[in-house]
Target: OmpR/PhoB-type domain-containing protein
Amino acid sequence: MSCDDENSFSEITKIALRDVGNSLLLSQSDSTSLVLPITNIDTNKFELTFQEELRIVPDNLVDAVKNSFAKANLPDNYRIEVLQCSDNEVAYSYEMKNEEQNSIIPCMGRALPVGCYIIQVQFTELKQTSWVMYVLLFGGVILALWFLMKLRKPKLKEDTLESYIIGKYEFYPDQNKLVKSASEIQLSKKECELLEIFYENLNTVVKRDELVKRVWEDQGVFVGRSLDTYISKLRKKLQEDDSIKITNIHGIGYKLEVLDT
Model:
């Protein structure tokens, strides 16, 4: 998919998700509170948040997403997760496939209590576009160029890639992953960027403004709790090492602490 196609897909998805948010609020007779800016948090993954607390009714959510995505001609394969703002635990989720008999939609009719929720959508299979034709037409040329480049620049072995030691983990920023006891833990792009900043400032407080500026500056859209969400995800991925802590310095920022063992 080209950059233009990616940008177009992202903008259409944001419009559709804003329509979903509006439908959910109107279903609860709320015509005044706001749907906050939609965030593209990872490849093909988006986040919908609200100004005020609301009740999540699975039936309404499924219908609103299905209708809005159909109007926007978005892919039929996606996964929806409803996260609790307080701890980012999944309160409700379902998976939709283009063949509805294969979709998994549990707990219909069982409403979640009023609260602060984050709705995330992950597209699991994007529709093929004209880029497929381009690949078919010019595949031979691309393959030849790839082969020439491979001859000129041999592929680096994994053990030659730059890595950093953080407690009991090896951190490979170029591969967006952590390794512990031969077990790999994948990191999203933003998790990787945050961990790099923390490593550069080990055992030192990094201000929230600096983290936001360096990780979100080029996107133009930032929801205040997005930083806290990604910090929470990093904590979970580092939780197997008790010597590592990401500490919240209230009103200032965060600090990655690695204790001597």
Summary: The domain at 3-125 is CATH 3.30.980 (Threonyl-tRNA Synthetase; Chain A, domain 2). The chain has two domains: 3-125, 158-258.
